[in-house]
Each structure stands twice: as C-alpha cells, then as structure tokens.
Amino acid sequence: MKVRSIEELREELLKGRQEPERQIVVSGGTCGYARGAGEILSALREVVSSRGLGNQLMVKETGCHGFCEVEPFSVVRPWGYLYQRVRPEDAPEIVEATLEGRPIERLFFCDPVTKERIPKAEDIPFFRRQNRLLLGDNERISPEDIGDYVALGGYRALEKVLREMSPEEVIEEVKRSGLRGRGGGGFPTGRKWESCRRAEGEPKYVICNADEGDPGAYMDRSLLEGNPHSVLEGMIIGAYAIGAHEGFVYVRNEYPLAVKRISTAIEQAEAYGLLGDDILGSGFSFRVRVVRGGGAFVCGESTALMASIEGKAGEPRAKYIHTVESGIWGRPSNLNNVETWANVPLIINRGADWYRQIGTEGSKGTKIFSLVGKINNTGLIEVPMGITLREIVYEIGGGIPGGKRFKAVQTGGPSGGCIPEELLDLPVDFDELTKVGSMMGSGGMIVMDEETCMVDVARYFVTFLEDESCGKCVPCREGLMQMRRILERITRGEGREEDIPLLEEICEAMKDGSLCALGRTAPNPVLTTLKYFREEYEAHIREKRCPAGVCRELITYYIDEEACTGCGRCLKVCPAEAITGQKKEPHRIDPEKCIKCGSCKEVCQFDAVKVK
Amino acid sequence: MKVDLKKVEEILSRYDQAEHSLIAVLQDLQKEFNYLPEEALKLVSDRLGVPYSQTYHVVTFYKAFSLKPRGRNILTICMGTACHVRGAPKLVEEAKRVLGIGPGETTPDLEYTVETVNCLGCCALGPVVVLNERYHGGMTPRKLSSLLQGKEG
Q1: Predicted confidence band of residue B153 (pLDDT cuts 50, 70, 90)
Q2: How many domains does chain A have?
Q3: Which of A115, A204, A278, A428 is 20 to 30 A from B59, alpha carbon to alpha carbon?
C-alpha cells in the first residue's frame, strides 16, 4: 500500500499496535548472535508462549546496543535493568522476575574498576558518558520492523523535506550543520552534495558506502543491522537534494546480517511508497539497490567502489575529475558513508543550529567509535567530537584489563597512526588527530597495552596493506613490499642500523607519489610508531630484543620456579612435548623443543610462565 | 567434475544481462558450486557480454572468489587488528599444525579450507574464527584445536 503522508503511514502501521510495558530486550547484532543471542531469544520466547504470557510481557529483538563486552545481554523495561552475559538457562528466571517487577542481582553488570554491581544500563559509566544520537535508537527498534522506526518519528524528516524544502534549502541546511564525512576523509557533506547537484549530466547517482574495511571498525555494520531505515531515509533526502533517482548501498559481503536487514528495509520502504515513483505524492522518484562487495579493502575508496558497482575490478583512478562530476558510468555520483547518511534525518528534524552546538569548532556532531583491543569495556561508543582520548579509554572504556599499562591507541584503521600515552589528553576530532600524524578514519580505536609490540603492529598494517594494494601504481605496490621486508627483518632480529632512515625515505616517496589515499596514507602506521616508539625499533635492531615479548625470534618462554606449583596443566597442553616435571615439582620448558605457541602461558593459573 | 550448466543459467536469469551484474552472478555461482568452474565462467562472460579476460581479472581481484574447489568445511580466521593484538597469528599456526594447511589452502581430501579475513567486525569477541558460518569468539590455539578435532571425530 502506497501512502501519501507519514500520518497515513503511522495510522496504517501503528493502529491497534499495543506493546506491553514490560519488555525483555535482547541485543541481536552479529556479535550478539555470535555469543548466543539467538538461543536466548528462543528460550525466552518459548517460556513466554508456553505459559501464555504474551499479553503481559514482550520479548523483543533489537539491533546492537554497542556494549559488546557483556554480550549477550538483555535489558528489561520499563526499569532499564541490564543483565549481562545471559544464558538460555536464565530465561525462566528472567521472565518470572520481570512479571513480578523484581530485579535479578546476580546478572547485573559488574564494574571492572570499582567491582560494584550496577542495576541499570543508564548508570553504567560505559553508557553514561555517551551521547547516543544515532545508536540510541538501536535499543528501541526491531530492525526488521518499519513500524518501530516510524513510531519513533521515522520518515518525518523525509516528509518535511519533500513538502517544505527546496533541494537548495536542504543543501544549505546540511552545509550549515557542519556535517563532515564519517568515512574517513571528513569532507563537508553539504558541499559535496552541492557540487553533485551542480554537475552536468544525467542520471545522477547516490551511493551509501558500507564497505567498512578498516579492521577494528564496525559502527556501519551496527547501524545497518540495528537501524537500517535511518540510513535509507538519509539517502532519500540526499537524493532529493542532489536530484538523483537511483541509489546504491555497497555492503561488504562479510556482513551477511547487514545485507539482509538493509534489503528488508528497502522492500518495506518500497511497499509503502517511501521508495519508488512519486514518493509521498511529491512527484520525486528514487530507487535503491544493494550491491555486495567482493572482499577487497580498496573498494572502500570511492573510485574503486564505483568501478566495482560497474562490475569491474575495484581499482582506483586518479581524481583530477571528482566523482561528483564523473563517477559511476561517467555520471555525477555522490558517495557518503553509512554513518554520514544516518546523521541526515537528525539534522533535518532538529535543525542545523541544534546540530552545530555539539562538537568542536571544525568537527560538529557526534562520532561513533569502536573501542576494541586491550580494553575492559569493548564496544561501540558514540561521543561528541572533542572528547579526550583519556575520557574514552579510562572513563568509558574502564581502562586496561589485568592491571597492565596502557601503551597506545591506534585510530583510523591501516591508514591511521598509533597515539602514545603522552597525548591522551588530545581532544578527538578530524583536525586534532591529523595533527598528531593519525586520522579519524572510520572510527576504529584499538587500544594497545605494554604487551603489544609496536614494530609488530607496524609490520601487521604494512602486510595488510601490501595484500590489499590493488597494484596499479608503483609507489604503493613496491613501497609496501619493501617496507614489509624491512619490518620483517627487524622483527626477526636481523634489522640493520640503516633500516630506520630507509623506512622513512620510502614513507615520504609513497606519500608523494601514490595514486589514491590507500597508498598516500599507508605510511602513517610506520611513521607514527617511529615517531613515538622509536626506542622499540632500536631495541629490536641494536639489542635484538623485543621489549613487549611478542616477536617470536627474539623471545623465550620459561617457567618461574617460585610461582610454579607443579599442577601439570602446561605439560598436558604443550603440543611440542617441551615441558617436563614431576607432579607438585616446578616444571621446566626445553627451549630447544619449544615452538613458542604460548599454550602453556594461556593455561597457567599461577602466572608462572614468563616471556623474556 | 561435470558442471551443471543449467544451474548457471538459472543464476544468470536472476540478473540483468549486463556487465554490472558480473560480481553478483559470480557470488551466487561461488555459493552454488563452492568455487568458480571454468565452463561456468565462460558461459557467464558470453551472456553478460564481458570479455573472458576481464571476467578472469575480476575473479582473481576479489577475495570472495576461488578458482579451485574448496573444502566441505570452511574455517575462517579473523585477522583484524583487535584479533591480531589478542593473538590471531597463533591461531593460523595452530590450524596449520592440526590440518597441515595454511591460509587459502584446502586439504587434499577436500575436508577443510582455511581462510583469513581482514575483519569480521566482532572485535569484542576477538580473536574470532568462523567454522561453517558459526562464529566462535575468545579463541585460543587450544580451543581451536579441540574445535577442529571435534569436527573430525
């Protein structure tokens, strides 16, 4: 049924809809499912239906809430209790307690720092410090139910734009909001739209870049899985502003759930006439297709992505002519990232003036970061631009696990850099991160502790990029290979004194000479680790020593005889039979036989296995 | 192995017969056959009007495609940064120790294929492996070894 107004849509979708006040919400993103959310949902539904409780209590699946650390978890409404690491066996108790309005204390979140149990999600420091303008709705929406999105005011921005605003006014509003591209480049979104609108040529295309390739970043997946209609609404508004009638969502093939949920959202929007011909009776037409990526990191680059949509290999081209003028099939094409699109309805609904108040001078609004690696509270966080790294790592992230020392936080994916402890008070926005040699990128933040070797990290990123370089231009293809060889040599303890200046020289050549941003930014991980952690490189080269105890050729495992209780666990797991010892006597590792797999260290309960 | 070209035709019929359908068709073929047989690729090139050389370029460019038959069980090891700092390289070694094959390889009996992926976006669970589309988080070499041996036994 095609609707003519959002009021009509609300009437159609929400009439007779009555949800019980008591709800058990389960976070059902990919991570949640990986930890058993599916089993918990079935268990809860089974209890509710077998006892005929459907009218008193609702079991609701939503997208990811972002607190991956305690997945799978459920939130019980109306109180907002958060139960962490729930198991299917807990289902009957959760249902009973919810009916009685009683909390289950043993399932409360336990703060890793204070060890205090916190009943409600809103009081957990991880959530309290955030400003969840985009992610907040993930907690309230069933991603495959357009009704939930509409109930929360969804598609009102689209209606406002189509009824009350000219395309130029929409562009002006987005320009004034100060929104910058969330995919990495930080280009002003309104200006991009304006250039594309003014460009000669028909048809025009809009594209949603959901080829989230940066390892350690998954906010786009979470938005597509959790609130696909918000992204779609942003795209339709953008298409109207630009004058495009066709759009593409380019999604990584590694994100099957995101592909499914955005495809469902498109079908629903088509069914109600929010996509297709004559949207809401406005005369404006727009269609969207989902394109699945083929698994190439470089396809996150705009020209490569557009080549891939055309069915070609995703090789970037030089951008003397911008894609807003000549993109897909040589037509004006406007590409924005998932998170950027999701910001658009918000700006239209609440106004550019409101949006401008959030953030810093040059970077407005909030940004979603994925806080991962050696951190207590792993998850997706949405914070206002300008928050400091220290607040992110210690207040939201709860610090480093196991009492280890913080070493660095890596931002911006493989093109970003490693930021050391002395810069923890840096306010996070597009410009500040660039100043210290890193970048915002798509918002991955990987925390590293004292047991992370920075030379190994540089080698990791260079190896990654060498593998992903499309090979079209020489500085990137050859530069990465040479850098990888040098870094491997250093991690093997065969580094030479001249390696550091040579690395720096290659970095400069790549920055100047590469064709696309992949090659131009590829030196960042090497340059920042050299800048802030040079002594680690020097220890590898001069002393043949890996201070973090990571580089295999430079370390040996041994057992601390004082700490060893002779329990025999390590002896049983050693795949190389390198460990000997009698029960209740200290054990020993034969360095000749040891393959340095670390299994013994992993099983030891007394911290007796050491690395030197 | 004889390739059922009817299946290829059936997949082709779902899409526009044009170059821009190439990657989507290849993805469906890969899913159907678990690899991309030469006869199928020739037919696809012909139907979509794409030179065979260009189809070959696309197939070898993207990671999602394989020209060789893959194993019945697919083990994917995530090599994202978060998994890397939490020990993913040790999982690759363990898989090699247990199955005797490295990333991109298939056991001669076609039982297992080991693959690596840049990031699955489940960083909180790291290190992560996926065995036959089931995610396993918090992996250690020891857990991986029992996972693989449980599968074999």
Answers
A1: very low
A2: 5
A3: A204
Q: Using the 3D structure, point to which of A390, A419, A449 is the last residue of a domain.
A: A449
Record: contact B119-A214, CB cut-off 8 A: yes
Q: Which of B65, B118, B140 comes nearest A464 by C-beta?
A: B118
Residues of chain B with CATH 3.40.30.10: 73-152
Q: Which domain, by its residues, includes A511? A: 454-542
**Distance between start and end Cα atoms, chain B:** 28
Which residue of chain A is at minimal alpha-carbon distance from B76? Answer: A254
What would be the CATH architecture of the domain defined by B73-152?
A: 3-Layer(aba) Sandwich (3.40)
Phi and psi for B77 in degrees, rounded to 5? -105, 125
Based on the fold, state whether residues A236 and A337 are members of the same structural domain: yes
Write the pLDDT tens digit of every residue in A130-141: 999 999 999 899
Q: Is residue A345 part of a domain?
A: yes
pLDDT tier at B140, thresholds 50, 70, 90: confident
Cα–Cα dist A488/A552, whole Å: 11
Cβ neighbours of A173 (radius 10 Å): 22
Cβ-defined contact of A30 to B18 (cutoff 8 Å):
no
Q: What is the dihedral of CA A32, A137, A299, B121, to 10 degrees?
A: -20
- Which residues of chain B does A35 touch, with a Cβ-Cβ cutoff of 8 Å? 125, 137
Candidates B53, B78, B118, B145, partner chain A, best to mutate (most A CBs within 10 A): B118
Low-confidence residues in chain A, pLDDT < 70: none
Cis, peptide link before residue A78, omega less than 30° from 0: yes
Q: What is the pTM of this model?
A: 0.91
Residues of A in contact with B120 (CB under 8 A): 30, 254
Nearest to A504 by CA among A535, A534, A470, A474: A534
> What's the rounded Cα separation, in Å, for the pair A306 and A335?
9
Tens of pLDDT, residues A551-563: 988 989 999 999 9
| CA proximity to A403, closest of A429, A374, A431, A379 | A374
Tell me, what DSSP letter sits at residue A242? H
